[in-house]
Amino acid sequence: MKYSVIIPSYNSQTTIEKCLSSLSKQDIGQEFETILVDSSEDNTPEIIREKFPWVDLTHLPQKTDQGTARNLGVKKAKGEIIFFLDSDCTVNPNWMSRMLYWHDKGYQAVGGPVINGNPEALVSRAGYFLEFNDLLPYDESKNKETWHVGSCNASYKREVIKTYGSFPAPLKYALEDMLYNWYLSKQGIKMYFDQSIIVNHHHRITWSAYYKHQYKLGHGTVQMLRKTDMEGSWLVRHPLAATFIWPLITFVKLFRTSRTVYKWQPKILRQKPLVIPLMFTGILCWIYGFAKELYFGEKKLYYKRGEAP
Description:
The chain has helices spanning 16-23, 44-51, 66-76, 95-104, 122-132, 158-164, 176-186, 207-225, 233-237, 239-243, 246-264, 266-271, 275-296, and strands at residues 3-9, 33-38, 56-59, 81-85, 89-91, 109-111, 114-116, 144-146, 153-157, 191-193, 199-201. Strand 1 (3-9), helix 1 and strand 2 (33-38) form a beta-alpha-beta unit. The radius of gyration is 19 Å and the shape is globular. The protein folds into two domains: 3-201, Spore Coat Polysaccharide Biosynthesis Protein SpsA, Chain A (Alpha-Beta Complex); 207-296, no CATH class. Helix 8 (207-225) packs across helix 13. Helix content is 46%, strand content 15%. With 309 residues, the chain is α/β, with parallel strands linked by helices. The chain has an eight-stranded mixed sheet, with helices on both faces.
């Protein structure tokens, strides 16, 4: 088996059918294995067993973080190229073939943009812009070499994972893909971002889920920055300084996100102006999670440059 697709899943009964149906329509002209690692408490496993018997399903007895689930899938995978997709995403028929095109060009990791799969909900739009503002789709003139590909839309050559290991896990609040790609980039791994490699991602539509997720992302950002030299890592090294600039951090994050959205599709902010205050309140939850982890979270040694995460 030359190719493997790995999908982590938790309580995905409303999205898993569309995800796997879209995956089954790939145009690569040959078989590939699909490994789904699930820790759901809903009917997701039953749906898979009944409607998608070709999926290699591993069901875990308790909720598992995405990084751990992906790593369990990697251990089972036989493919030379390993693709990663999330259970709340759908893909176009050329999803795999476009990634394979760039792998054939010599790139060891490939990915592409994320599209909001349920843009009708204002909360969904706000969550999408805050979480994926660095993965918005532009025209193909923006294809480029990169240091980061999102784990819901990525592929790696097996030799990369074999040499450098798979996702750092468990991380309490995700962002393991950004940490992993940061580490790979330090090792000189070549990555490519292709605007035509698209996934449609279904986002949270309730206020409580939106705010809770932003809070968790704030936590996770500190955990990630403690291990890297990314922009903002100086904050976690100088928490006292951060105390005096929280308002500035809040408005800088809002400004940067809004500017990116405006560059992507200028009409959106004019047509949906309420998304701005909704993003602002989401950022406040992010700040709260960031500050709580910064001041009260587990303090770990920073990773040295070039050291595995």
